[in-house]
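haha ok so turns out i had the wrong file open the whole time. this is the CORRECT one, sorry everyone. sequence first:
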Amino acid sequence: MKTLKDVISLKFKTSESEGVIFHGEGQQGDYVTLELKKAKLVLHLNLGSNQLGSIYGHTSVMAGSLLDDHHWHSVVIERHGRNINLTLDRNTQHFRTNGEFDYLDLDYEITFGGMPFSGKPSSSSRKNFKGCMESINYNGNNITDLAKRKKLEPSNMGNLSFSCMEPHTVPVFFNATSYLEVPGRPSQDLFSVSFLFRTWNPNGLLLFSTFADDLGNVEIDVTEGKVSVHVNVTQVKKNRIDISS
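then structure:
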């Protein structure tokens, strides 16, 4: 396929921070990749480079953050030559690709949800997408519908299900005055805790626990947007440990 215009749209939701949403490449060195990196959306596009190195076509644009929140996010990519509109959840960025070429020349298949192993370093270091997609539309083709009716050849690799599984996690919402108290475990010499959290507030206490027999306490809080861990041990010379990240 050699196209001057492209319109690609889809919706996704995931709790993973990394994953290839779609990918296509050609023998001329052209490629297009949409992926999640550190829970941000990244579009890589190359309409062609030359072997002399005087024309360098690679372009990368980043959008959004915290997209691993298991909520639906919509993406629309509109391309006319080197002019691109990238829209994520109704916020649009306009940019021009590097290089001098206007056509996207893809002569392999386009893959959604991952990329085939091509032997190139870029393909081995990228994770496949894990989550749900819907309303996939590529240049007027309803990919989701075609895949469901098995009208694509080859249609899918691996385990695809045409339903969206909800995660089994149960979130807890805290207001400024609520807290959750659970019983401690006496006679244990190991203290271990893990949790996920999300907040717009720069300050707040996440966890507090007092050790038995007046041995001290541990506190985890958010201070000015940073997570801090404070461990107080009463019977040691260096009795306080502070870690911030």
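The longest strand covers residues 5-13.
again sry for the mixup
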